[in-house]
Structures are given as C-alpha cells and as structure tokens.
Amino acid sequence: MAENKKTQDKQAKGPDRKANRRGAARLAAVQALYQMDIGGAGINDIFAEFESHWLGGEVEGDKYLPAEAAFFRDVVSGVVRDQAKLDPLIDEALSKGWPLKRIDAILRAVLRAGSYELEHRKDVPGRVVVSEYVDVANAFVDGDETGMVNAVLDQIARQFRADEFARAGG
C-alpha cells in the first residue's frame, strides 16, 4: 500500500503534470466560453460553477482532471475582455463565405480561446497551443472541423508568433 502511494506521488509530480492540468484548464475554458455564448451566463457565475463543480470534480459520472484554475480564469477572462478584437481576427483567418457567426458555438469557443492564448500566453510555444486546441476540438467535433481549427489557429499563430514560426522552419 505504501509503495503504491509512492508510485502515485511520483507520477503526479512527473513532467506531464503541469501540461495535463493546463490541458484540463483549456477544455474547461472552452466549455465555459461555450456555455456563456449559448446560455448568456455571466463570467462570475461561470467561474463559480466551474471552480466548484467541474475543475477536478465529477459530473454525471465523468471524472474531470484537476485543472490549473489560474490558467482557466486567464483564458476565459482574456477571451471575454478581448473578444471584440479576437473575432475579426478569426473571421479574417476563416475561409471566405464562412464568417465566425456561422461557425458552431463550440468551435467559436475553441478558436477564441486558442487565439487569445496565442496572443497573450507567450510562455507556451505556439505549436503547443495549436495542437492543444485541435485536441480540445477533437473532443467535440469530427476530423474536417478539427482540420479547420488547425488551419485557422496556425494562420493566427503565424501573425502573433512570426518569429517563433520562422525560427522553427515553417
């Protein structure tokens, strides 16, 4: 029993711990932004609900990974604060004829969160941000739509992180 506890402690302190907590925070942020978009919930209500029920909790039998709450709050509040600037940027990156308002609400949330993080979270490599949000989108939609998320976020990443993408050769 004590050996098992030590093994669990070691695994919890491994290099993936922060990444997993951030991944869970990204997923929760997208769900929160989606809920705000379709339900009109306010940011304070969303924070209270997610921090008490979703982040690291169990909902309808599904266990959610512990999320980095500060990262979750930063992404959600940043998207809310910068949405008027992010939406035209995303619109420009989308294929002509498909404005952001025609995109499914969950994909709008993914694109907004990813765009916010690309602009403001320089502590996270751009390619990691794009990959993480493609994974989040994959939890909700099929391959064609995740391809669109990848293309749009890649284009936005090249605007906000041109030097990073130039150094990496592409």
TrEMBL record:
Protein family: Belongs to the NusB family.
What InterPro entries does this protein's entry cite?
A: NusB-like_sf (IPR035926), NusB_fam (IPR011605), NusB_RsmB_TIM44 (IPR006027)
Basic and acidic residues bias locations:
1-18
Specify whether RNA-binding is a keyword of the entry: yes
Function description? Involved in transcription antitermination. Required for transcription of ribosomal RNA (rRNA) genes. Binds specifically to the boxA antiterminator sequence of the ribosomal RNA (rrn) operons.
| Keyword field | RNA-binding, Transcription, Transcription antitermination, Transcription regulation
Q: What Gene3D superfamilies has UniProt attached to this entry?
A: NusB-like
Q: Which organism is it from?
A: Bradyrhizobium erythrophlei
What GO terms describe the biological role, i.e. biological process, of this protein? DNA-templated transcription termination; transcription antitermination
Ranges for domain NusB/RsmB/TIM44 come to 25-158
Under Gene Ontology molecular function, one entry of this record is: RNA binding
Cellular component GO terms, alphabetically?
cytosol
Q: Which domain of life is it from?
A: Bacteria
Point out the coiled-coil segments of this chain.
Answer: none
According to UniProt, the name of this protein is Transcription antitermination protein NusB
Q: From the UniProt entry, list the residue stretches annotated as the region Disordered.
A: 1-23
